[in-house]
Design goal:
Layout lengths: L1 H17 L3 E5 L15 H6 L8 E5 L7 E4 L1 H6 L7 E3 L3 E5 L4 E7 L2 H5 L3 E6 L16 E3 L9 E5 L21 H23 L1
Helix pairs in contact: 1-5
Amino acid sequence: MGNSEGLLLICLALLSAMAGATQFRVGGSKGWSVPDPDAVSYNQWAEKNRFQVGDSLSFVYPPVEDSVLLVDKDAYDACNTNSFIDKRDDGNTVFTLNRSGPFYFISGVEANCMRNESVVIVVMADRTNRSSSSSSPPPSPSTASSPPPPPESAEATPAPAPAPAEEEPNSSPPPPNAASSRVVGFMGSVWCFIGSIILVL
């Protein structure tokens, strides 16, 4: 009976971890940088993902060469690096998305921003009433010395754009989608729970 109780506890821990938020690494293994000319832009990647209140964005970049700015829409549209809500230049920045609505990020280097090192993240409405979008502060930044990231993560790698008809199409896979990892994790939790019930019987 001790083994089945242990398995049940593991399953419950796995289920509670599934309720956690997702951390998206902006730029994937390349990190926060100017995207390649043939790559899908950060905004195209962002439009393909679903961001929830509580999710976070991880920006990794060389701290002496770049930074990330949280800005308003006007500063985003103009690549205005002098007008920002928050500036981070530590090289490993995590912003927690603590309200629904748009978040505007640009590179702190104006030339990089002009070359599409910028992204708009739209967070879906929070239907749990955990927070109020009208009174929420801006996303809370943290660094590598903060608590460990959530158990579930997804990389945000800008993928190559589709090739024109006369060129050979690029066969690289699309960027990962957090939704698919949640489905796989959920199904694993369900089978774990069923297995523990069978062991108890």
